Amino acid sequence: MRPVYDAVLFDLDGTLTESHPGILHCVRLSLEEMGFTPPAEEIMRRFIGPPLWYSYTNFCGLTPEQADEAVERYRAHYRKTGYLECAVYPGILPLLQDLQAAGAKVAVATAKPHSMAAAVCGHLGISPFVDFLIGNREDEKGIGKRWLVEAACRGVGVPPGRAVMIGDTRYDCEGALQAGAAFLGAGYGYGSEEELRQAGGERIAPTPQALRPYLFSA
User: Fold this and answer.
1) Is 68 an active-site residue?
2) What angle do helix axes 20-33 and 64-80 make, rounded to 10 degrees?
3) What is the pTM of this model?
4) pLDDT by residue (tens digit) across 120-135?
5) Which of 6, 11, 68, 131 is catalytic?
6) Euclidean distance between the first and the last CA atom of the chain, given in angstroms as a whole number
Protein backbone atom coordinates (compact mmCIF):
# COMPACT_ATOMS: atom_id res chain seq x y z
CA MET A 1 0.00 0.00 0.00
CA ARG A 2 1.11 3.54 -0.74
CA PRO A 3 -0.15 6.57 1.18
CA VAL A 4 -2.24 9.06 -0.78
CA TYR A 5 -0.98 11.92 1.40
CA ASP A 6 2.50 12.59 2.75
CA ALA A 7 0.99 13.57 6.10
CA VAL A 8 -2.23 12.53 7.83
CA LEU A 9 -3.42 14.79 10.66
CA PHE A 10 -6.02 13.57 13.12
CA ASP A 11 -8.29 15.36 15.54
CA LEU A 12 -8.40 13.52 18.88
CA ASP A 13 -11.86 13.59 20.51
CA GLY A 14 -14.45 12.04 18.21
CA THR A 15 -11.87 10.98 15.63
CA LEU A 16 -9.25 8.85 17.34
CA THR A 17 -11.04 8.45 20.67
CA GLU A 18 -14.57 8.05 21.96
CA SER A 19 -14.12 10.52 24.79
CA HIS A 20 -17.53 11.89 25.70
CA PRO A 21 -17.95 9.99 29.01
CA GLY A 22 -15.02 11.71 30.69
CA ILE A 23 -15.52 15.12 29.10
CA LEU A 24 -19.23 15.42 29.87
CA HIS A 25 -18.78 14.04 33.38
CA CYS A 26 -16.21 16.72 34.17
CA VAL A 27 -18.31 19.49 32.58
CA ARG A 28 -21.28 18.48 34.74
CA LEU A 29 -19.17 18.45 37.90
CA SER A 30 -17.70 21.87 37.17
CA LEU A 31 -21.10 23.47 36.57
CA GLU A 32 -22.75 21.82 39.57
CA GLU A 33 -19.92 22.93 41.87
CA MET A 34 -20.54 26.52 40.74
CA GLY A 35 -24.30 26.25 41.33
CA PHE A 36 -25.33 25.99 37.67
CA THR A 37 -27.68 23.38 36.24
CA PRO A 38 -25.96 21.51 33.39
CA PRO A 39 -27.70 22.03 30.03
CA ALA A 40 -29.55 19.34 28.10
CA GLU A 41 -27.61 16.41 26.65
CA GLU A 42 -27.69 17.76 23.08
CA ILE A 43 -26.09 21.00 24.29
CA MET A 44 -23.55 19.16 26.43
CA ARG A 45 -22.32 17.19 23.43
CA ARG A 46 -21.45 20.45 21.69
CA PHE A 47 -18.64 20.80 24.22
CA ILE A 48 -16.73 18.12 22.32
CA GLY A 49 -14.64 19.86 19.69
CA PRO A 50 -14.35 23.58 20.53
CA PRO A 51 -12.07 24.92 23.29
CA LEU A 52 -13.71 24.65 26.71
CA TRP A 53 -13.69 28.38 27.45
CA TYR A 54 -15.63 29.01 24.23
CA SER A 55 -18.15 26.30 25.11
CA TYR A 56 -18.80 27.57 28.64
CA THR A 57 -19.41 31.12 27.42
CA ASN A 58 -21.38 30.29 24.27
CA PHE A 59 -23.35 27.20 25.29
CA CYS A 60 -23.91 27.87 29.01
CA GLY A 61 -23.99 31.68 29.09
CA LEU A 62 -21.17 32.00 31.62
CA THR A 63 -19.34 35.30 31.92
CA PRO A 64 -15.63 35.31 31.00
CA GLU A 65 -14.73 35.25 34.69
CA GLN A 66 -17.11 32.37 35.41
CA ALA A 67 -15.78 30.49 32.39
CA ASP A 68 -12.23 30.87 33.72
CA GLU A 69 -13.30 29.27 36.99
CA ALA A 70 -15.29 26.53 35.24
CA VAL A 71 -12.26 25.62 33.11
CA GLU A 72 -10.06 25.33 36.19
CA ARG A 73 -12.61 23.13 37.95
CA TYR A 74 -13.01 20.99 34.83
CA ARG A 75 -9.26 20.55 34.47
CA ALA A 76 -8.88 19.47 38.10
CA HIS A 77 -11.41 16.68 37.58
CA TYR A 78 -10.17 15.76 34.12
CA ARG A 79 -6.56 15.47 35.19
CA LYS A 80 -7.55 13.24 38.10
CA THR A 81 -9.79 10.68 36.39
CA GLY A 82 -11.62 12.21 33.40
CA TYR A 83 -8.91 11.52 30.84
CA LEU A 84 -9.16 7.81 31.67
CA GLU A 85 -12.87 7.70 30.75
CA CYS A 86 -12.34 7.18 27.02
CA ALA A 87 -11.44 4.51 24.47
CA VAL A 88 -9.83 4.26 21.05
CA TYR A 89 -12.34 3.66 18.26
CA PRO A 90 -12.09 0.11 16.88
CA GLY A 91 -9.74 -0.03 13.90
CA ILE A 92 -7.86 3.18 14.68
CA LEU A 93 -4.63 1.68 16.05
CA PRO A 94 -4.17 -0.68 13.06
CA LEU A 95 -4.86 2.27 10.74
CA LEU A 96 -2.18 4.38 12.42
CA GLN A 97 0.26 1.50 12.30
CA ASP A 98 -0.39 0.94 8.59
CA LEU A 99 0.00 4.64 7.78
CA GLN A 100 3.33 4.72 9.57
CA ALA A 101 4.49 1.53 7.84
CA ALA A 102 3.50 2.97 4.45
CA GLY A 103 5.72 5.99 5.04
CA ALA A 104 3.13 8.67 5.83
CA LYS A 105 3.77 11.13 8.61
CA VAL A 106 1.09 10.99 11.29
CA ALA A 107 0.17 13.92 13.54
CA VAL A 108 -2.50 14.77 16.10
CA ALA A 109 -3.91 18.32 15.97
CA THR A 110 -6.45 18.90 18.75
CA ALA A 111 -8.16 21.72 20.64
CA LYS A 112 -7.52 19.74 23.83
CA PRO A 113 -4.62 21.24 25.85
CA HIS A 114 -1.30 19.77 24.77
CA SER A 115 -0.53 18.18 28.14
CA MET A 116 -3.89 16.41 28.34
CA ALA A 117 -3.74 15.28 24.71
CA ALA A 118 -0.32 13.77 25.34
CA ALA A 119 -1.62 12.01 28.47
CA VAL A 120 -4.59 10.52 26.59
CA CYS A 121 -2.43 9.35 23.67
CA GLY A 122 0.04 7.78 26.06
CA HIS A 123 -2.65 6.05 28.12
CA LEU A 124 -4.41 4.59 25.07
CA GLY A 125 -1.31 3.44 23.19
CA ILE A 126 -1.64 6.01 20.39
CA SER A 127 1.70 7.75 20.99
CA PRO A 128 3.99 5.14 19.34
CA PHE A 129 2.22 5.72 16.01
CA VAL A 130 2.30 9.55 16.11
CA ASP A 131 5.21 11.59 14.75
CA PHE A 132 4.01 14.93 16.09
CA LEU A 133 1.31 16.17 18.47
CA ILE A 134 0.07 19.73 18.79
CA GLY A 135 -2.60 20.81 21.26
CA ASN A 136 -4.32 23.91 22.48
CA ARG A 137 -2.97 26.47 24.94
CA GLU A 138 -3.16 25.33 28.54
CA ASP A 139 -5.69 28.07 29.42
CA GLU A 140 -8.03 26.52 26.80
CA LYS A 141 -9.12 29.86 25.35
CA GLY A 142 -8.37 28.58 21.89
CA ILE A 143 -5.86 29.30 19.17
CA GLY A 144 -7.86 28.19 16.15
CA LYS A 145 -7.84 24.97 14.16
CA ARG A 146 -6.12 26.56 11.17
CA TRP A 147 -3.14 27.39 13.37
CA LEU A 148 -3.10 23.82 14.72
CA VAL A 149 -3.19 22.33 11.22
CA GLU A 150 -0.40 24.60 10.04
CA ALA A 151 1.67 23.84 13.14
CA ALA A 152 1.19 20.10 12.68
CA CYS A 153 2.34 20.33 9.07
CA ARG A 154 5.43 22.25 10.11
CA GLY A 155 6.04 19.68 12.83
CA VAL A 156 6.18 16.80 10.37
CA GLY A 157 7.88 18.79 7.63
CA VAL A 158 5.08 18.46 5.07
CA PRO A 159 3.32 21.43 3.38
CA PRO A 160 -0.47 21.61 3.89
CA GLY A 161 -1.05 20.95 0.20
CA ARG A 162 0.30 17.41 0.66
CA ALA A 163 -1.60 16.73 3.90
CA VAL A 164 -5.11 15.71 4.94
CA MET A 165 -6.88 16.62 8.16
CA ILE A 166 -9.33 14.07 9.56
CA GLY A 167 -11.90 15.34 12.03
CA ASP A 168 -15.51 15.16 13.13
CA THR A 169 -16.59 18.81 13.46
CA ARG A 170 -16.85 21.91 11.33
CA TYR A 171 -13.89 23.39 13.20
CA ASP A 172 -11.68 20.63 11.80
CA CYS A 173 -13.04 21.11 8.30
CA GLU A 174 -12.80 24.89 8.30
CA GLY A 175 -9.30 24.85 9.78
CA ALA A 176 -8.04 22.33 7.23
CA LEU A 177 -9.46 24.17 4.24
CA GLN A 178 -8.24 27.56 5.49
CA ALA A 179 -4.74 26.11 5.90
CA GLY A 180 -4.77 24.65 2.39
CA ALA A 181 -4.97 21.00 3.45
CA ALA A 182 -7.44 18.39 2.27
CA PHE A 183 -10.21 17.32 4.65
CA LEU A 184 -11.79 13.96 5.41
CA GLY A 185 -14.78 13.80 7.74
CA ALA A 186 -14.96 11.31 10.59
CA GLY A 187 -18.68 10.67 10.30
CA TYR A 188 -18.64 8.30 13.27
CA GLY A 189 -17.65 11.10 15.68
CA TYR A 190 -19.58 13.82 17.49
CA GLY A 191 -20.34 16.23 14.65
CA SER A 192 -23.16 15.65 12.18
CA GLU A 193 -22.81 14.94 8.48
CA GLU A 194 -24.88 18.06 7.79
CA GLU A 195 -22.46 20.18 9.85
CA LEU A 196 -19.45 18.79 8.01
CA ARG A 197 -20.97 19.28 4.57
CA GLN A 198 -22.07 22.84 5.34
CA ALA A 199 -18.47 23.60 6.34
CA GLY A 200 -17.21 22.32 2.98
CA GLY A 201 -16.54 18.66 3.77
CA GLU A 202 -17.18 16.59 0.66
CA ARG A 203 -15.81 13.22 1.81
CA ILE A 204 -17.15 11.64 4.99
CA ALA A 205 -16.28 8.18 6.30
CA PRO A 206 -19.00 6.51 8.43
CA THR A 207 -16.50 4.27 10.26
CA PRO A 208 -12.76 4.27 10.95
CA GLN A 209 -12.41 1.38 8.49
CA ALA A 210 -14.04 3.52 5.81
CA LEU A 211 -11.17 6.03 6.08
CA ARG A 212 -8.78 3.57 4.45
CA PRO A 213 -9.81 3.93 0.77
CA TYR A 214 -9.13 7.66 1.01
CA LEU A 215 -5.70 7.20 2.59
CA PHE A 216 -4.10 4.35 0.66
CA SER A 217 -3.61 3.54 -3.01
CA ALA A 218 -2.65 0.19 -4.48
Assistant:
1) no
2) 130
3) 0.86
4) 999 999 999 999 999 9
5) 11
6) 5
